[in-house]
Design a protein that fits this description.
Layout lengths: L1 H10 L6 H7 L5 H26 L3 H20 L26 H28 L12 H6 L8 H24 L5 H29 L4 H16 L1 E2 L8 E2 L2
The protein binds fe (ii) ion (2 copies).
């Protein structure tokens, strides 16, 4: 586990502050931690889907992606369907075709389709954990975190894509770091689940970063440093909306 986490600690500008950890392990906060985690898994799948639809695949493949995620979105945003049914929707039944003229298309598709599959599986696993702890699904607003980073994305291509991929790397890396931080302090069943997530989230972080570098075709370390400071600031500044990726609790 240490070899898995070392590059993540290296990549992130700061560790999660103790104040956040103390808040997150409070019994009363378990529902918000799990509900927000649940929605983050869907958002991770959605942003990967957005990237392949916008940058890599033909229309028909794009439609198949939309249909793949639809039952998860219906459940989350419209409370439609029984969560157990979602176990049957975790696989994509169609192969994705890259649009002609996108040199990085296939690589983006391969990495992101696998990522979506894993995030949808995590989504289902969080629902299983919620069921185990008797926590019912209810909608929850999003935190300032991802928004705060995506605000800094440049508005022209391919820089916009590169920035979005770097943001993806930070979100994955921070999630991984927080799972590792939480694991020893929560109910063993939940802690074991967090540990089981580390490997794929660590790979997601690496995939985003590799894609960003490959697509840029040049050194991106300055841009990575820029987002590192933005992310660090979101983690270390006061935040009155306690969530999975929130800053220092101040209420
Ligand atoms: Fe995940
Ligand atoms: Fe992930």
């Amino acid at each position: 586990m240490e070899t898995l986490l070392a590059p993540i600690f290296d990549f992130l500008g700061c560790e999660t502050p103790d104040e956040w950890l103390q808040e997150a392990v409070k019994k009363d906060n378990l529902p918000v931690v799990l509900l927000d985690h649940l929605v983050c898994e869907l958002k991770a799948a959605q942003s990967a889907m957005y990237l392949i639809r916008k940058y890599a695949v033909d229309k028909e493949s794009g439609d198949a992606l939309l249909a793949w995620l639809k039952p998860f979105e219906d459940f989350t945003y419209r409370k439609v369907g029984d969560w157990r049914e979602l176990a049957n929707h975790q696989k994509l039944n169609k192969s994705m075709l890259p649009r002609s003229g996108t040199p990085y298309g296939q690589d983006l598709i391969d990495k992101m389709v696998l990522l979506i599959k894993e995030e949808l599986h995590h989504f289902y696993q969080v629902l299983e954990i919620m069921d185990m702890f008797g926590i019912a699904y209810e909608s929850i607003g999003s935190s300032r975190y991802a928004r705060g980073m995506l605000r800094e994305v440049r508005t022209y291509e391919p820089e916009a894509l590169i920035d979005k991929l770097i943001c993806g790397a930070f979100i994955e890396a921070r999630s991984c770091e927080r799972f590792a931080k939480l694991a020893p302090h929560v109910d063993k069943r939940l802690g074991d689940f967090y540990i089981s997530l580390l490997r794929s989230e660590a790979r997601h972080y690496q995939d985003y970063l590799t894609l960003a570098g490959d697509i840029a075709g040049e050194d991106i370390s300055q841009r990575v440093q820029y987002f590192c400071r933005v992310e660090e600031n979101l983690i270390l500044s006061p935040d009155d909306d306690f969530k999975f990726h929130s800053g220092i609790p101040c209420n």
